[in-house]
Automatic annotation (TrEMBL):
Protein name: Pyruvate dehydrogenase E1 component subunit beta, mitochondrial
Pfam families: Transket_pyr, Transketolase_C
GO biological process, one term: branched-chain amino acid catabolic process
Cross-referenced InterPro entries: THDP-binding, Transketo_C/PFOR_II, Transketolase-like_Pyr-bd, Transketolase_C
Gene for this chain: LOC106121306
Transmembrane segments: none
Top-tier EC class: oxidoreductase
Co-factor(s): thiamine diphosphate
Recorded GO MF terms: branched-chain 2-oxo acid dehydrogenase activity
Species of provenance: Papilio xuthus (Asian swallowtail butterfly)
Taxon lineage: Eukaryota, Metazoa, Ecdysozoa, Arthropoda, Hexapoda
Keywords: Oxidoreductase
Amino acid sequence: MASLLTQKSLVIGKLTKYVNDCAKRLSSHFIYYPDNEKPVSGETTKMNMMQAINNAMDITLRDDPTAVLFGEDVGFGGVFRCALGLQDKYGKDRVFNTPLCEQGIAGFGIGLATAGATAIAEIQFADYIFPAFDQLVNEAAKARYRSGGQFECGALTVRAPCGAVGHGGLYHSQSPEAYFAHTPGLRVVVPRGPIAAKGLLLACIRERDPCIFLEPKILYRSAAEEVPVEDYTLPLGKAQLLREGTSATLVGWGTQVHVLLEVAQMAEDQLGLTVDVIDLQSILPWDEDTVCNSVKKTGRCLIAHEAPLTCGFGAELAATVQEECFLHLEAPVSRVAGWDAPFPHVFEPFYLPDRWRCFAQLNKLLHY
């Protein structure tokens, strides 16, 4: 009897370890590829993406006396701690909590920016930006046009954590970039890591168009790099070619960039082929030249994003590539994306366009 109980305990222990190991892997569906190149020379310090975003806002509040930071719970740092310590440093007049009212947060930010202040608004999760959709699309995006250039709210930057995190479920995992990409007058930006996040956020804050800055929340602490300490910006509307090759062009943004970098390595190791990997960075406007020039060189294009396939931003990329690169294509443009379903909880690993789905699709492209 004792022997049987011991055997059962060992079996249960192995099963528990197997489940725990799987959970650890499934909570992070990618390998992080840190940036090694620095946009500016000088002193660096190791930061994760949360710290890099905090640093960008710290620099803004320090150098711009009109700058204010506000949102739900930002007074104590916010849910993801991106504003940690900023209220203590700059006071409750410049870093403060708002009511749980996304429409009000956006409207308040538009008013501040129109009056000449630099407004940094945080929406606690990108999934809850939709109550503010009217304010952002009908007011912020159109202020300059409807006034004939007499006033604008370009000093408004709206930050929002987005994307899969491993356990977010349908209300805390969505990627809403395509909704805003349909709106002239806005800029939509998604960083892939700390160096990019700091430079792009500072560029958004100083841009004269209102910006939606979507931060892949799983990267807040899983991504760490040697980030330049000094002030710097990265150009908006410009993609980055992260890896060069000849057999295909892989295009993504945010977390998906790291999935595609892993796919590129798999292609080299298993197939002996090299591919271009492009981080779009800016969704609106997006860098058509970099993408199309790459596709004209490689003849094949794979686009991957976490948002659902239908009307995802990959559809716009695919249409443009087909139109501009048709005579250079060796295969139809391919998209790998989330499914046309609400974002699941326990089935998240089957929903995400992971390296296996992307690699399988790349194989189809190569053998078309």
